[in-house]
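Structure first, sequence second, as always.
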């Protein structure tokens, strides 16, 4: 679900962090406020509601809820960032229409394998379906604000390269799906089946995969960059040709992997 942002925009939009710090410098925590950004108060009720909805997914509750304080701080940071973006966009004359958010959600859904798969992936990351539009709206706002701020700016080549290198996971991504089983023999048997008939992959994932987070979505893992998976799995993804079906063992078991496509955005 991560957007691909241009290195040029990243190099300049990083300056918003300065604005964020100045906006929150006097953000006193008040009785009914989690934070105050400029003249806007973020209520504790708003923060609590966002946290509770984010932890409503079982996987999110298990992974993020294990350290609720850290997760709550991350959610608060997201709310503060949203207020900072809105104020910066207002000052720059940038307005994001609802239709633009819908279009971006549709693009993310296509990348994820459908709206249901997108919402499932977001929920597992602590973003509930009801909060997804606001989350995507912030992404679109950042993109359009970045475009507005960089329109007439000459960014040095070294700054572009640094931004590109720092965010390489966004510019070199692989779309894949997998079926996770416990035994190598079963993995090899499934591999032979999907190589013989690609249409069997999704049904076999639903029937045999022990990865409950995506088995009902055909084993779809979405479009991701380096660093998202354990080394053995990542090595296969980024060294195999698109269209490859193969097997790899990791600490989780045996994966039957389909490397669907690789998208590399040059500097």
């Amino acid at each position: 679900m991560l957007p691909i942002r241009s290195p040029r925009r990243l190099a300049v939009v990083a300056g918003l962090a300065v604005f964020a710090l100045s906006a929150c410098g006097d953000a006193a925590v008040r009785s009914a406020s989690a934070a105050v950004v400029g003249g806007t108060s973020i209520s504790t009720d708003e923060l609590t509601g966002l946290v509770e909805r984010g932890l409503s997914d079982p996987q999110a509750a298990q992974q993020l809820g294990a350290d609720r304080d850290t997760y709550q701080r991350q959610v608060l940071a997201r709310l503060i960032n949203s207020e900072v973006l809105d104020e910066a966009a207002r000052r720059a004359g940038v307005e994001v229409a609802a239709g633009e958010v819908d279009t971006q959600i549709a693009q993310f859904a296509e990348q994820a394998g459908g709206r249901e798969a997108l919402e499932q992936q977001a929920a597992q990351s602590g973003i509930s379906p009801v909060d997804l539009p606001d989350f995507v709206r912030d992404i679109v706002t950042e993109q359009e604000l970045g475009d507005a701020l960089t329109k007439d700016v000459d960014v040095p080549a070294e700054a572009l390269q640094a931004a590109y290198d720092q965010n390489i996971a966004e510019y070199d991504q692989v779309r894949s799906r997998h079926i996770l089983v416990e035994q190598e023999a079963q993995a090899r048997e499934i591999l032979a089946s999907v190589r013989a008939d690609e249409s069997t992959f999704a049904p076999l994932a639903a029937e045999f995969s022990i990865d409950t987070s995506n088995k009902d979505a055909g084993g779809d893992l979405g479009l991701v960059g380096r660093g998202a998976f354990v080394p053995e799995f990542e090595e296969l993804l980024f060294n195999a040709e698109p269209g490859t079906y193969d097997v790899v063992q990791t600490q989780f078991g045996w994966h039957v992997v389909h490397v669907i496509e690789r998208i590399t955005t040059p500097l």
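Margin note: The two ends are 21 Å apart (CA to CA).
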